[in-house]
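Hey, can you fold this one?
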Amino acid sequence: MSEEAGALAGDPDDTETGQRIIDANNLLGVNFLHEGAGKSKSVGRIVLPVDGGNRLGTDFLVSGRVLMTNNHVLATAAEVGGALVEFDFHLEPDGSSPRVQRFRTRPGDFFMTDEALDYTLVAVEPTNDAGDVLTDRGFIPLINSSGKAVVGERVSIIQHPGGERQQVALHDNRVVDIAGDFLHYETDTKGGSSGSTVFNIQWDLAALHHAAVGNKNEGTRISRIVEHLRSQFESDESTSVGVGVFRDLMAATAAPASDGEQPAAASPGSLVGPTATMNPDGTTSWVVPESITVGVGQNPVVAPPGAAPAGDGQPTPATAPTPVVDSYDMQVALQKIEDGSRRVYYSATKDTLAREAYYEGIDMEAAPDDLYEALAELLDRTHTTTLSYKKARLHHLYPWIDRRDGPNRLLKGIYSNKAFDATEAIIQELRAEAERERMIHARSSLESLESVDDTFLEELEAA
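Sure. Predicted structure:
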């Protein structure tokens, strides 16, 4: 047995088991795969005849009549008229090929495009020549709230790379940057992937993939596309071409399934639970119970046109919801708190081994200037990742580093010595952050955050 192994075997403080979660929790419920398969039904392949062959791309349905793809795939209404949309171009689990459903686009019913954001929306025929009904495929709703994907979060892309059969990128895909209107992420794509869906870990549509930028991929944020759509119809909606189709698009409904599971793809239906109604002008009216969801949450439900009014028949006043905390940050923090319950706060044996290994090769008896240079070089070489303030607090300090030893593993202020529960501190901080972002997005005047315990936050900050 090695010296290190022997020391660890004799460590009376070492109570760790042989299994652990490394960094973020990579374990997902098997329903994740079922949900992704459901979403794939709404993703198709664009086939546009051009001189010398076909231009191929990816598209997806965002309502019962409208698809979305890139402007550089379908740029003008004139060329869109010749495009076909193909669904079910994939392999079944047994290796067989299902019948491909082909639909014609109808730009005369609705067409909108923007070169800067690189998106195109176009209507599709409701029933094709084979009798296939478009609405049977469901759709992927556009959600105008920001923050559906954060730096470090895993994303999944359903696509037709190179115009090939439908594929999905699931492994080693993370958001690396949020740059204004765009998300940057690491994943595998090819020509033909243009117009693909970029989903977050809850299968919410976060971005429209459109290009590679350097060694990263880039997608247009869905929240920015919805903002642009709203601005286009704010002027004189009554004269806008396809306004009825637009209203259907903005009123697309994603109804929650039972037992907290997401639906495979949205379809018109009954409403269950809290609702958020997206109005034809793009604004959103909320009716949400006073609650907070910890962990992987649900999307708000968007009410369809003509939904029954509440109570006495008058429209229900819009009320601000208690923000749902960011699921990715909460997932990581809760997992680290759980992991910490099986670890010791400090092991003298491990500390000694780690310290000796880290400073191995450093001559502690060297002259002060030489020692300073050696330590500075060691620090630069071994500390290569600079954490954001948010990630440092929520992923490391609160769940583990700042928690004190003892039966309750509480946070303690170094000045006041006040004790705080780590989970409560994380929840309150995420709620405050979500509320601030909601207020900024709504362009509301700054007011007291009624849903946030200000006293708690002030005590935590002062501690």
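The chain is about 25% helix and 20% strand. Let me know if you want another pass with a different chain boundary.
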